[in-house]
Design goal:
Layout (H helix, E strand, L loop, with lengths): L5 E6 L3 H11 L6 E7 L13 E5 L10 H15 L3 E6 L1 H12 L3 E5 L10 H7 L4 E4 L11 E2 L5
Parallel strand pairs: 1-2, 1-4, 2-3, 4-5, 5-6, 6-7
Membrane topology: Single-pass membrane protein
GO biological process, one term: dolichol-linked oligosaccharide biosynthetic process
Protein name: Oligosaccharide biosynthesis protein Alg14
């Protein structure tokens, strides 16, 4: 019996992480999940349920100098794990993964945070340029073509 394809699930802490884990609950039977999360959330490379978790540096618009180390960490994970797809709910570590994944030919899916009611997030705007599938959780932010609305996660 063959193993299910790998899916890299990556996000920032807080609401992004909550939304990501809720999305992943429905994918566990179809994919081997590999998580990448800011090191502030997890100190060990394995979760209690046996899921593989990598630690990455969290970055934001306020500390751009950390983008390069985070990108190198994400690139290492992508090259080591070779996921079939990347799923992210944001923010910067997810946008980095979407960009690198698209350059490596990996299918990419971005779900913009439900917190962004009036406009897409900054990271989402960057990810939109490279994501194969871009979803918003607010119907009025969808354009019906490149920005899709399929409902809310929370």
């Amino acid at each position: 019996m063959s193993r299910p394809p790998k899916l890299l699930a990556i996000s920032s802490p807080g609401g992004h992480w909550i939304q990501l884990t809720r999305l992943c609950q429905g994918l566990e039977g179809r994919y081997t999940l590999v998580y990448a999360l800011p090191s502030a959330l997890f100190g060990s490379p394995k979760m209690a349920d046996g899921q593989k978790v990598y630690s990455v540096l969290d970055v934001s618009a306020d500390d751009k100098w950390r983008l390069v180390p985070c990108a190198l960490q994400v690139l290492y994970i992508l090259l080591k794990e070779r996921p079939r797809a990347i799923l992210s709910t944001g923010a910067a570590p997810g946008a980095i993964a979407i960009w690198l994944g698209s350059l490596l030919g990996i299918r990419t899916i971005w779900v913009d945070s439900i917190a962004n009611v009036k406009q897409l997030s900054r990271a989402g705007k960057l990810a939109q340029k490279r994501a194969d599938v871009f979803l918003t959780q607010w119907e009025h932010l969808s354009n019906g073509q490149t920005i899709l609305y399929k409902g809310a996660v929370l």
